[in-house]
Task: structure prediction
Amino acid sequence: MKGKFITLEGTEGVGKSTNIACIEQWLVARGIEFISTREPGGTELGEEIRGLLLDHRSASVDIMTELLLMFAARAQHLYEKILPALNKGTWVLCDRFTDATFAYQGGGRGVDTELIQTLANLVHKELQPDLTLLLDIEPQIGLSRVAQRGDPDRFEMEELAFFERVRQGYHQQLAEQPERYRLIDASHSPDDVAGAIHRVLDKFAEQLV
Ligand code: TMP
Result:
């Protein structure tokens, strides 16, 4: 049987790292074999592309360059890591996937979603996450958390309106694909967020038996 593909999405400062750890604990507790990975990145080449995408530059980055680099990293990630794992029954937990491209490059930058869909079809044909957890928070709150961390990357330097559009992009996907998307209110306490995530995962696992 194929492994399950779980992705975590959200705008900046939403607490993805903490909640990835929370999902990992859930998987370990159930004895499920899994790998944990991220986008852009996840492979040696992908992590190099991540560096290119997140670094600050004196010249602005062309939107198409950004879009194609996201998919270039993703193609390598699928080929080298995600598909081999799923095919041997290992679950894959991924910090962001193509939904981030629809939200950031589509919603945030205004790239035509049909073009993004064409690239998605090219790079991963019918593969879709089985479950996507959308951690949701007011972008302003998330950005103030990011500011406390210091040293923002190229995306984190964007203005608030950009992240409002990204969030809208996620909400649109949530409305269009309710069967795999689950909304998690990330403004609650870490324990409450972890509890909500565990409940979603328990329900997801129940449906598999
Ligand atoms: P992270 O720091 O949350 O892991 O993600 C790196 C940044 O890359 C984040 O600001 C979102 C952005 N991103 C996109 O713009 N498009 C994508 O397809 C992905 C995967 C990430």
The longest strand covers residues 5-10. Residues 82 and 92 are 7 Å apart (CA to CA). The pocket of thymidine-5'-phosphate is lined by residues 12, 16, 38-40, 70, 95-96, 100-101, 104-105, 155 (CB under 6 Å). Strands lie at 5-10, 34-38, 91-95, 131-136, 181-185.
